[in-house]
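Field: sequence (string)
Field: structure_tokens (string)

Example rows 1 and 2, in order.
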Amino acid sequence: MGVEAVAGAERRVWEEVGATPVEHRLDLASVGTTVRVQEVGSGPPAVFLHGTSVAGTSWADLAAALPDVRCILVDRPGCGGSDPLPGEVDLDRLLAVGDHLVADVLDELGLATAAVVATSRGGLEALRGAAAHPDRVERLLLFGWCLGTPGTRAPWWIRAGALPGAGRMMAAVPMSRRNVDMTLRRFGLDRALDEGGMSAAALDWLVTLYGDTETLRHESAASAALLTLRDGWRDVVPRDRLAAVRAPTRVVWGDEDPFGDEATARRLADALPDADLHVLERAGHAPWLDRLATCTELARTFLVDHEPED
């Protein structure tokens, strides 16, 4: 019943944006688990890595607006329709996943290279993967703050997740529509909720995802390994890793992102060898939900319309 409910809610999201994804399951050799991937569009391939405690369908609005990109939407391990990581999930294991997730996905799809699009928690895998496998990542498009990058702190309600058992307690709270709304607002999605950037179908999908899958429990366990009570997120994408990224990078940042201001955005862009920065007014932590047309144009010009490399 749970699987059917999630699939139905997800289908309604895709119907609303006018796209029908093709689904695959990929056995990832280095990561050591099986993930679900949805694909829409055709053109140059781009692997999309979602944020905390959601799944690939969270990109539906942007992916549907990019029909000239082969959008490969990955449910990160333990999220949505993907299997969790087997055994104990500790920091070393999570960083190894970050290093190899993108390369494993490309291997299973028979792709030598692709662009990578990421946000928030997915930024860890995107940036570490681009540094570990610079020959596999052609271009890197980052939306908003990325977990583990230098110079950011987590608010107290996130740092509390480092306490023993806190993650299990948080994951056990029933996620009603009201609770989902409150959680999204904490993550800086007020404008998307108040101005219609996040649809009723998308909210219903999240309620079903949290109630009928183990996504929250798996993400809480992973977050506990990535957090310290004092400082918040560990510095798992340090400056030497950022300096090793060779892919041309575009950073698109909302000026209302609660996890970092424009100065934070500039520090990230300046730490990358080849990056440009676009700060969008009246946009939050997931800027494509607030400024879809602008983010679509920034994505298309970067992923499709750019001059070919010599």
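Row 2 begins here:
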Amino acid sequence: MDFLQTLVSIFMQYGYFAVFGILILCGFGLPVPEDISLTAGGVISGLGYANVHIMFLVGMAGVLIGDSFVFWLGSYYGEKALTLPVLRTVLHPERFDKVREQFKKYGRWVVFFGRFMPGLRMPIFFTAGTSKQISFIRFVFTDGFAALISVPIWVYLGYYGAHNFDQLMGWVRNGQTIILVLVGLAILVAAFYWWRRKNREARGQK
């Protein structure tokens, strides 16, 4: 709770710019939980220091720009970027190799699920860039779709719990479960449409 209150105090003073900047730095592996940063942005909206709908857009922009820049680093510089101090401290060669193996197996689905894996987002998005297996546009679309699930949950949780921090922290603890349930539902919907398309194709061939 202390950490959330600290972020709320900073965001109350500097508003959207602080939220936007922190989220971009989170994309580079800043040891600040992205979900808490988004929640703090929602809290200052609930306290009247910002508009919650604009905060949602700011949150989406900060998340996507931070993620996209990490992807671009991997795409443009490749593994040479691992020597940069900003990456060297959070992306060790062993971790990079493990993420690369997962990306070879599951492709862009790793990008989608990476959005819900604190601590692994940056390695996954950087590796996606180095892999050359996914275009920048497809990366943004996949990451953006995942962000549309997670970002509004954290921002609006903060907004509706702004006046009761004890209750809010309970919601935050359950927030990851809510997100995982929504991801599971999204997978089921995607699987259903894939199955239905395959059935139509099979009927068309008869």
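free_text_note (row 2): The radius of gyration is 19 Å.
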